[in-house]
Amino acid sequence: MAVVSTPPTLERALPVMDDAEVLRIRNDFPVLNQLVNGQPLVYLDSGATSQNPLSVIEAEQEFYEQRNAAVHRGAHHLAVEATEVFEDARQTIADFIGADYAETIWTSNATEGLNLISYALSNAGLWAAQGRGDAGLKQLALNPGDEIVVTEMEHHANLIPWQELAFRTGATLRYIPIDDAGSLRMDLAGDIIGNRTRVLAFTHASNVLGTINPVAELVGLARKAGALVVLDACQSAPHLPLDVKGLDVDFAVFSGHKMLAPTGIGVLYGKQELLDILPPFLTGGSMITTVTMERAEYLPAPQRFEAGTQRISQAVALAAAANYLTETGLNRIHQWETGLGQRMVSGLESIPGIRVLGPSAGKERIGLAAFDVEGVHAHDVGQFLDSRGIAVRVGHHCAQPLHRRLGLTATTRASAYLYNTTHDVDQFLDAVAGVRAYFRA
Amino acid sequence: MSLDQLYQQIILDHSKARHGSGLAGTAAPEGAHTGQSHQLNPVCGDEVTLRVAVEDGKVAQVSWDGAGCSISMASASVLSELAEGMTVAELHNAIDSFREVLRSRGKVSADPDLLGDAAAFEGVARYAARVKCAMISWVAAEDALNQAA
To answer: Given an 8 Å threshold on Cβ–Cβ distance, is A379 in contact with B127?
Structure first.
């Protein structure tokens, strides 16, 4: 299977995206072409899950029609073909994020990736205590007195696994706070990330605030402290060019379903030298070298972390999604979505009674906006927008501590992707402007 | 189904003028058996703490504190108004009936003689994502009633 990627020079030569191009892009997404409550669907919930282009749907279908077999076993024709497309998909994703092939691990989703890292780290402590595995594991083990640092803006997926790792190891969990404008308090980060810090886990871009965090600065602080860096790239990998080696993070995770692929597939990136010594999280078939009645020896990464039959068709579909994004151009997509995000925020800010979370208009943010409507609960806002065919997310967006910090329990979030037009945003703003009157707020 | 069928006038009215709202400000009648229940919908953060006071086998008072969407707040208000004066058995019966209507996906219509203003929530049954909003205070009432008995 050929790996299609657009050379950077070609992307530069392409003009900036506009509504006309987006209308053509929309033709690739069958689900967008429907009426909801009698109105054309305006899908502004891609931050939760994105839609699939035909090339992705067809890639999965083609796999089942022509190549379906278990990978890495069996000598028959289909098994060989399935293994080839599965591993080609891994190379495509490695190229997509600037990683090496063996550093690219399939997971079910970002949540599983983060659990994998946190369990591999606590297993490192168990192994080191019994002299098992590489001598370097002792350095990776967490102990009472050690600290794990996260931020106040984390999604529960990048928070709870660290709470539980702290519980298992006796380490302490610390937070980098945010300011009222939704940025990390970098003036405090230097004091929080210190010699006791063993892990620094943070999101690249906030799923609620839209803030893009200063990765280089945070990685610099972590390096000085000798801490591992875990990057939640769920809201960045689908929307902007991601270069994990350039960012110099130790681990990064993201989910396929937020980047035009099906559910059930995600990616964990880890530095080779870490992946090769870390104990596995899930164990079983496909990840071993020798098994006796007493114990087992494990393969190096990536197989070390891929126990059991893998999500083969989803991996193939995720590669097709990455190709779709690469061909459109991540820089162009990022630029387009930035424009949509700014249009949302400046529009929302001009509506009385609306409080936008995160950076104000004109400040850097990704293409999403979460907001509170004075006197109207987010669930009612979402229902009102749905009656106009507009799909948004309501609730705490899996970030309860962040909402509590902002004095809110639930907000409404509109999140754009490459298939949203400026008209979509305007329809959304027009509907939001009618919410308070309807509910007499 | 139109938005106005979901957000009926009665519901919008009750979401503003919340009958029975304010636990701290309403002491339970002296000598009454009370039960209190806290219910939370983790999906949207809707929250209700509801107290039922029973005197001589009758619901003397329903008070509650809550935060949430208009459906959940209106539902608590309507319940509070409806329940007062009912016998314990009547309230249990009303809760069962309300639950049956709400879980029917629109197939069971509400009996206005039994449910009064709560019949206005019939339309909610067609919105699967909102059924819990309407149910939360009724679940709290059922739990509180069992404690008071």
So the answer is: no
